[in-house]
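Quick one, tokens below. Sequence please?
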């Protein structure tokens, strides 16, 4: 399967990518800084400006983007 993921460079996303690749999936990770990451045979890092028509058929989408789970639960973080 081809899976598009946001938040794949985070703690949970990294672990989930490992599991998805073990199962034979190809993961396309949408990130602001794809140049900071190394593509592999089963993982591709793409930017938000990547032309969507150049992607293969996407079977699933996982959204993990957002605020980090780590840190104090302060009024500002809430």
């Amino acid at each position: 399967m081809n899976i598009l993921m946001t938040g794949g460079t985070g703690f949970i996303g990294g672990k989930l990518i490992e599991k998805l690749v073990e199962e034979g999936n190809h993961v396309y990770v949408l990130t602001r800084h794809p140049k900071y990451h190394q593509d592999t045979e089963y993982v591709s890092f793409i930017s938000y400006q990547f032309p969507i028509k150049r992607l293969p058929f996407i079977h699933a989408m996982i959204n993990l983007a957002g605020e980090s789970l780590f840190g104090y639960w302060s009024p500002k973080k809430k």
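The mean pLDDT is 92. The beta strands are 2-6, 26-30, 43-46, 60-63.
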